[in-house]
């Protein structure tokens, strides 16, 4: 899962309406290693807790200012990528139409 998706998932999990069912992540679980990585990068913060199974857990995950900036930056770059792709595709289509019209005109080819 991409960093942006992970951040958005955490953001969704910590919304006001979800506060009654705050998640506790077991950090010994390999699936939750992304939390440790995101915290080291300064994109999220969480409270460390000790679980009944004597492992370390994380709760009250929140996205830092840097995390929100990361989401916004990558959202903009994704939008730019989509616009560039559509522009390129449109240019290819227009070029194809122009070439076809020239061939029809020059060689009097009819379909």
TrEMBL record:
Say if the entry is tagged with keyword Transmembrane helix: yes
Keyword Transmembrane helix listed: yes
The record, for InterPro entries, names: WH-like_DNA-bd_sf
What keywords does the record list, in alphabetical order?
A: Membrane, Transmembrane, Transmembrane helix
| Superkingdom, natural source | Bacteria
Q: Which residues cross the membrane?
A: 81-107
Q: Which Gene3D superfamilies match?
A: Winged helix-like DNA-binding domain superfamily/Winged helix DNA-binding domain
Provide the protein name: Uncharacterized protein
The source organism is Lactobacillus crispatus
């Amino acid at each position: 899962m991409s960093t942006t998706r992970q951040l958005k998932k955490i953001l969704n999990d910590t919304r006001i309406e979800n506060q009654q069912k705050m998640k506790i992540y077991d950090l010994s679980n390999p699936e939750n290693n992304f939390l440790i990585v995101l915290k080291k990068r300064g994109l999220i913060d969480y409270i460390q807790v000790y679980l009944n199974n004597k492992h370390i857990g994380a709760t009250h995950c929140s996205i830092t200012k840097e995390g929100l900036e990361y989401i916004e930056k990558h959202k903009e770059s994704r939008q730019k990528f989509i616009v560039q792709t559509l522009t390129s595709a449109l240019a290819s289509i227009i070029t194809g139409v122009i070439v076809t019209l020239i061939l029809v005109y020059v060689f009097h080819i009819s379909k």
